[in-house]
Amino acid sequence: MNNQNQKIQGCVFSSKSVLPVAIMLAFLSGALLLGFSGYSPVAAYGALLRGSFGNVNSVAEVLLKTTPLLLAALGLTISNRANVISIGAEGQIFLGAMGAAAVGLFMGPLPAVLAIPLCMLAGVIIGALWGGFAGWLKVKMNANEIIVTLMMNYIAIEMVRYLVNGPWRDPNSVEPFSAQITPGAWMPVLVPRTRLHIGLLIALAMVVVFWWILRRTTLGYQFTVCGSNPRAAEANGINGKRMIVLSMLISGGMAGLAGAIELMGVHHRLIEEVSPNYGFTAIIIAVLGRGKPVRVLFAAFFFAVLTVGADGMRRSMGIPVALGTILQALVLLFALGSEIYEQRLLTKEKIQMLAALQEGGK
Q1: Which residues, listed in sequence order, are joined to residue 271 by a DSSP beta bridge?
Q2: What share of the chain is helix, strand, coil (3-state, %, to 5)?
Q3: From the CA atom positions of the chain, what is the Rg in Å?
């Protein structure tokens, strides 16, 4: 009997994550690409590290970019748990920034204790409504959420573009952006002489909140069951349609919060490019996070390092930023490959476990 238990435990617990190996292979492929492009991979990766960790300002920039990526990816983690594939975080970030700008521009010179929460709340609400509408279309009309959220991105981005080129445009500037929001709505700076603000602390707090929701609450269990086995969810009295809409509301709200914080902490005004593809990068981060908020945190930090480091390579060696984007894509491709490999390995181990049980029953 003891031998049987050892066999079963060996089958169940023998699989290990190959994600670190996949990331190493991605960097090796990136090194080959750099070499073929005429650059020294060692010097390039050294420039990447110096650009990300060379001084206090570099580290602050990494953490600054981690903030919106982390917030948007946490929201996508919830929708992924409910088996809803949302591509709409980018547009929701734009609308979240728009909501915060509306409060900061038109509510008057409010004190920080009121202006900051109101701007964030406006961003969360408009982002949640935008995401929830896509969820409602999926539930009521069986609309494909991938296509719907992708198309809604363009609507949201063009809405912001219209506002900064039209009714909200700063009359004192030739550039297409709004006037500055009230100073009371600016995010306080965490590290002097850098752009790092308290939005980072809010994002870290959200990691704890989402971890608690997914691991310790009935709601987290319902999201998981609804996404992994809809029939079992219905048998247990879980309203699958309601969970889909709720997951999209939360996902949109978090992306909206990311947009609001980005506007309040970095730009202080509504601009056309309020998000440099944070929403699309957050999709990759959510995939790498595999439904675990702490892993999402590390993935967001990792991609922020790649983003800031790519700019460092450009400044010191003249390497195009596009190569940094290619490196991010390579990480995603190898990470997805590692996940497929792990799933196949897990299936094989389950078969071995069943065989061990059958052998023990004879």
Answers
A1: 177
A2: 80, 0, 20
A3: 23
Instruction: Give the pLDDT confidence of 66-100 residue by residue, as tens digits.
Output: 999 999 999 999 999 999 999 999 999 999 999 99
DSSP letter, residue 104: H
pLDDT band at 360 (very low <50, low <70, confident <90, very high): low
* pLDDT score for 2: 45
Task: Give the chain's domains with CATH numbers.
Answer: 66-318 (1.10.3470)
Spatial CB neighbours of 166, under 8 Å, sequence gap ≥ 6: none
Coil/strand/helix, residue 15: coil
Residue 101: C-alpha distances to residues 138, 188, 197, 324 (Å): 30, 17, 18, 31
> Count of CB atoms within 10 A of residue 135's CB?
29
pLDDT tens-digit series, residues 273-292? 999 999 999 998 998 888 89
pLDDT > 90: percent of the chain: 67
At position 55, the amino acid (one-letter code) is N
DSSP 182: P
C-alpha neighbours within 13 Å on the C-beta side of residue 343: 7
DSSP state of 168: T
What is the DSSP code string of 247-269? HHHHHHHHHHHHHHHHIIIIISS
Query: Structure pTM?
Result: 0.89
Looking at every residue in the chain, the average pLDDT score rounds to: 89
- pLDDT, one tens digit per residue, over 249-270 is 999 999 999 999 999 999 999 9
Q: Which of 294, 302, 297 is nearest to 22 (CA)?
A: 302
φ and ψ of 180, to 5 deg: -70, 145
Tokens 């390995």 belong to residue? 345
Main-chain phi, psi angles of 248, to 5 degrees? -70, -35
Residue 189: beta bridge partners? 197
Residues whose CB falls within 8 Å of the CB of residue 329, separated by 6 or more in sequence, listed in order = none
> Tens digit of pLDDT for each residue in 205-237?
999 999 999 999 999 999 988 888 888 888 888
- Report the alpha-carbon distance of residue 68 to residue 311 in Å, rounded: 18
Cα distance between residue 262 and residue 67, in whole Å? 8
